[in-house]
């Protein structure tokens, strides 16, 4: 005989509630996990968007120049990285100073940024701007010192430059090498002058080491003095060696130099006289009147250039002792006084012809 099945026991109500809660908790956990996963994806996408935007700003086109093809910005010497970044943003070279700061730190450029005046091409990317400031690609200006100017005139040239700063002392006569020099905005005038003097010393030392033996001067200073006279006596580069040889020939035989530029220097300190020398000036004994004193004057009368210095260190071999203007900017040279007198007579004739053919002045 079969037995009737036993009735199943129902779980207590508290257990049933506990199971339901577990199922609900599991469902909620899955929901929260799904939501968290979605949030991470959103955050990741947002991060990518931000990163992509930063990369675009870093490498993409920068601001357009307000005027012309370049944006000019001057970065102060001693400025911090944050100040540089601010100046670049304020000047319109970059859009974001904070991104410039970050990029300079990440790339290691922060400790290598250089002050100076910059011209950034219109639309230059932030990466281009950072590279230019890191590499110091500043705007270069020029200061030109012509051959044959005095040291006072050199100082005036430096003072006229509106890109240089500071005061500058007057150097000794003949201490500067006439040349065109590259300078930066904000550079000290005294530093530029020192560079000019250092260049003169380098050139002078090299030429002195290779000079011809037996020259009639004993020191570098005397060589510079003679070179300054050569510089002032002729405006033709091709004549410098010949004029140098002539004066060296005179010094060797104890003949006076008889040169007008030294007399003028004694009167005006090298400023243009604006007229011919008077007989009274030629007859007055001064340390610079080489018509009256033997040998060289006590100092140079100008700053001679490289070619004039080279000419007196290694002059050509000649027998010439005299020269006079030829009316074309050059000179006629002679070995004897008689030949020189004929050349002088010809020069006087040229002068007279020039006076008779000159147009009358407004007051005539």
Automatic annotation (TrEMBL):
Coiled coil feature spans: none
CDD domains reported for this sequence: MltG_like (cd08010)
Gene3D superfamilies, per database record: Classic Zinc Finger, Endolytic murein transglycosylase
Enzyme kind, highest EC tier: lyase
Site note Important for catalytic activity, residues: 233
Record-annotated membrane-spanning stretches: 32-58
Stretches the record annotates as Disordered: 1-24
Function: Functions as a peptidoglycan terminase that cleaves nascent peptidoglycan strands endolytically to terminate their elongation.
Name listed for the protein in its UniProt record: Endolytic murein transglycosylase
């Amino acid at each position: 005989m079969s037995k009737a099945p036993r009735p199943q026991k129902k779980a207590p109500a508290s257990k049933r509630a506990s199971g339901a809660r577990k199922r609900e908790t599991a469902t909620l956990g899955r929901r929260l996990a799904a939501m968290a996963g979605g949030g991470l994806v959103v955050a990741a996408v947002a991060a990518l968007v931000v990163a992509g935007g930063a990369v675009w700003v870093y490498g993409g086109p920068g601001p357009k120049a307000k005027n012309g093809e370049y944006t000019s910005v001057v970065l102060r010497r001693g400025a911090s990285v944050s100040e540089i970044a601010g100046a670049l943003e304020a000047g319109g070279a970059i859009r974001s100073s904070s991104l410039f700061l970050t990029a300079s730190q990440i790339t290691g450029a922060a400790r290598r940024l250089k002050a100076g005046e910059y011209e950034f091409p219109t639309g230059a990317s932030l990466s281009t701007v950072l590279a230019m400031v890191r590499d110091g690609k500043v705007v270069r200006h020029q200061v030109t010192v012509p051959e044959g100017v005095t040291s006072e005139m050199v100082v005036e040239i430096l003072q006229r430059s509106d890109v240089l700063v500071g005061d500058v002392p007057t150097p000794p006569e003949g201490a500067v090498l006439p040349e065109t020099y590259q300078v930066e905005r904000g550079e000290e005038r005294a530093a530029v002058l020192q560079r000019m003097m250092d260049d003169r010393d380098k050139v002078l030392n090299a030429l002195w080491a290779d000079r011809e033996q037996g020259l009639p001067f004993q020191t570098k200073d005397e060589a510079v003095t003679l070179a300054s006279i050569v510089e002032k006596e002729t405006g033709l580069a091709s004549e410098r060696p010949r004029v140098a040889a002539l004066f060296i020939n005179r010094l060797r035989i104890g003949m006076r130099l008889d040169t007008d530029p030294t007399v003028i220097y004694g009167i005006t300190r090298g400023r243009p006289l604006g007229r011919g020398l008077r007989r009274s000036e030629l007859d007055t004994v001064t340390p610079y009147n080489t018509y009256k004193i033997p040998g060289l004057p006590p100092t140079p009368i100008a700053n001679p250039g490289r070619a004039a210095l080279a000419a007196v260190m290694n002059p050509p071999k000649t027998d010439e002792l005299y020269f006079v203007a030829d009316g074309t900017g050059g000179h006629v040279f002679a070995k004897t006084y008689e030949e020189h007198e004929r050349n002088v007579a010809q020069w006087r004739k040229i002068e007279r012809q020039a006076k008779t053919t000159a147009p009358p002045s407004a007051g005539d």
